[in-house]
């Protein structure tokens, strides 16, 4: 079961199936994480979240997953396993 000493944060859209799969995978692996449903934010909070996503994923696609310094765009179980470690 993967585990990590790094902070895990996911930027998602509330209606995105790939975002839901990424969250479910992390929960299944019992990896603590923070998530932000960007589409549910408004005003400055939304603008700030979009700017943060754009810094690590200029294409602004979701999910954008941050594991320490590693950025994973989209739900890719193999990449997640590697980034989370043994």
Strand proportion: 15-25%
Distance between the termini: 7 Å
Mean pLDDT: 93
What do we call the CATH topology?
Glutaredoxin
Task: Return the domain count.
Answer: 1
Strand order of the largest sheet: 2-1-3-4
Task: Kindly summarize this structure in a few lines.
With 86 residues, the protein is an alpha+beta fold. It is built from 3 helices and 4 strands, in the order E-H-E-H-E-E-H. Helix 1 links the parallel strand 1 and strand 2.
Please, could you describe this protein's structure?
This protein has 86 residues and is α+β, with helices and mostly antiparallel strands. The chain has one domain (8-84): Glutaredoxin (3-Layer(aba) Sandwich). The chain has helices at 17-28, 43-56, 77-84; strands spanning 8-12, 34-37, 64-67, 70-73. The protein has a 4-stranded mixed beta sheet with strand order 2-1-3-4, with helices on both faces. Strand 3 (64-67) and strand 4 form a beta hairpin. The model has no long low-confidence stretch (mean pLDDT 93).
Describe the protein's topology.
Layout: E1 8-12, H1 17-28, E2 34-37, H2 43-56, E3 64-67, E4 70-73, H3 77-84
Parallel strand pairs: 1-2
Antiparallel strand pairs: 1-3, 3-4
Features of the shown structure:
4-stranded mixed sheet; 86 residues; globular; alpha+beta; Glutaredoxin
């Amino acid at each position: 079961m993967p585990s990590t000493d790094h902070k895990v944060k996911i930027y998602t859209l509330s209606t995105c199936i790939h975002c839901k799969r990424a969250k479910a995978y992390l929960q299944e692996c019992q990896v603590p994480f923070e998530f932000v449903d960007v589409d549910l934010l408004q005003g400055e909070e939304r603008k700030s979240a979009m700017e943060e996503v754009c810094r690590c994923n200029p294409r602004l696609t979701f999910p954008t997953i941050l594991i320490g310094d590693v950025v994973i765009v989209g739900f890719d179980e193999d990449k997640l396993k590697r980034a989370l470690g043994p």
